[in-house]
Design goal:
- By secondary structure, the chain is mostly helical.
- Helix content is 63%, strand content 0%.
- The protein is built from ten helices and no strands.
- It has helices at 3-30, 48-71, 74-77, 83-114, 116-120, 124-147, 154-167, 171-177, 183-198, 254-266.
- Helix 4 (83-114) packs antiparallel against helix 6.
- The radius of gyration is 38 Å and the shape is elongated.
């Protein structure tokens, strides 16, 4: 076992996970407003829904397959399926969902690079992380053809031993398990671990976000550009005319009668 093998497959996994956890914690604590997916759908919605759905559905199934396939002990899945059939299942399902993910990812990259408004709002990390994901996905699909050369599942067992040794904190055993694995599988694992390093510094942080506060947030009014606000017409009840009181007769003062009598006597 070489020192490089121990470094990349015995030490690097823990370094990558530590950077991912500490970096994500620091970013959320110091720069919460940058913790977002940064959707560009408002800038250009052409093919956005199809590309996003293909990519996300594909990547979710691929990740779930990796977690279950690598971390399930042989003593557990042998009650259900053999090692050879497990590898065949992984190749078929990984090929289907990996292809869906690849189609969606290529569409997203094309949109990110060649849509003027989307490209103008994209940062270097936005483009970089898409290209890294593309390289990782292509290597994963190529590993299917490499796996077809040994259908006994021997390499898959070695990869599972590596993953299980890492999560049980046995770095020496993890490095030893990867000693005889092909270069393509090693590059695939190293680049996958590098995604953990890049995670806190890119938009990938939205993977571990949940809209908890959104559920209790007050409603917001959203208006489209150029749209007239809709005013609800509320019926106004008729107002009754005010009732006017009859004019009251004010009696003349007593001196007015005296003045009238004096006037009559003079005439």
């Amino acid at each position: 076992m070489s020192n490089w093998n121990l470094l990349f497959f015995g030490v690097y996994p823990y370094v990558a996970v530590a950077i991912c956890i500490i970096g994500s914690w620091a970013r959320f604590d110091l720069s919460q407003y940058s913790w977002k997916a940064g959707s560009s759908q408002m800038l250009s919605s052409k093919n956005m829904r199809v590309a996003s759905n293909l990519f996300h559905v594909g990547i979710l199934f691929v990740l779930a397959g990796h977690v279950v396939g690598l971390l399930t002990p042989a003593s557990v899945y042998h009650h259900v399926i053999s090692t050879e059939h497990k590898q065949l299942l992984a190749m078929v399902s990984g090929g289907i969902f990996g292809t869906l993910c690849l189609i969606g990812l290529v569409m997203l990259i094309q949109r990110r690079l060649f849509e003027p408004r989307v490209r103008a709002s994209s940062s270097t990390s936005d483009i970089m992380i898409l290209l890294v994901l593309l390289a990782q996905l292509v290597m994963g699909l190529l590993s299917i053809f490499a796996s077809a050369q040994h259908m006994d599942g021997s390499v898959m067992v070695l990869l599972a031993n590596w993953a299980q040794s890492v999560v049980t904190f046995q770095p020496i055993e993890a490095a030893q398990a990867m000693a005889s694995v092909g270069v393509l599988f090693k590059l695939h694992i190293v680049l996958g671990l590098s995604l953990f390093v890049l995670f806190p510094f890119t938009r990938l942080v939205h993977i571990i976000s949940a809209p908890v506060w959104y559920l209790g947030r007050r409603y917001q009014i959203v208006r489209q550009k150029g749209a007239r606000p809709v005013v609800a017409r509320v019926p106004v009840p008729p107002v009754a005319a005010p009732v006017r009181a009859a004019p009251s007769v004010i009696p003349a003062p007593a001196y007015a009668f005296k003045a009238a009598k004096v006037t009559d006597s003079v005439n």
